[in-house]
Amino acid sequence: QKEVEQDPGPLSVPEGAIVSLNCTYSNSAFQYFMWYRQYSRKGPELLMYTYSSGNKEDGRFTAQVDKSSKYISLFIRDSQPSDSATYLCAMRETSYDKVIFGPGTSLSVIP
Amino acid sequence: DADVTQTPRNRITKTGKRIMLECSQTKGHDRMYWYRQDPGLGLRLIYYSFDVKDINKGEISDGYSVSRQAQAKFSLSLESAIPNQTALYFCATGVGTSPNEQFFGPGTRLTVL
Fold it and tell me: Residues of A with CB below 8 A from B48's CB?
């Protein structure tokens, strides 16, 4: 079993839709959970991160962590064509700085 | 100018050749990383360096070596390239006070024939 898993997609939605992107993980020691966005032919860039369980909102983006289920989500409201990218979840333990990345989900938002 | 640059951006080479990928940064960060990205496997850590005198193996270091020539420069070498090293390679930087955020370069697409 991989340490971090994501549905690779591709996911295609109409503009304005609510998008839900998800990851599952196996290491219960993970405490920091990150979402990176990667545009085509570019390097990933950090969108947001959360610590432990709960929700965090940043504009149209909401990150949600359920540690009891080892499941994290990223919600995108009012999706825009500019949101079309690959979304990578990532996570790490508190005392260990190495970040483990998921394989990414490809998202296309159709105008 | 980009904060993290990688050269070359694309490279095609043959099995058995020695290849060097270079990374430079102007962010002043102490930490630098090399990853490879393969479809369905995501980003996997090859080597990382927390300062000039610190080099550490990642999860897939076999067949690779690195050199941290200065705080701003971190090179990745493939001593004898093989076809399964065909991948997209990323350099990234970071700081110890913010380990959740890494800053990635644009990537090098390497093809080994």
Answer: 98
Mean pLDDT confidence for B92-108: 90
Structure token digits, residue B96: 């110890």
B50: nearest CA partner in chain A:
A97
Contact partners, residue A22, CB within 8 Å, separation at least 6: A6, A7, A71, A72, A73, A74
Q: Are the CB atoms for B74 and B34 separated by under 8 Å?
A: yes
How far apart are the two ends of chain A, measured CA to CA in Å? Answer: 37
- What letter would DSSP give residue B60? T
Per-residue pLDDT, A1: 65
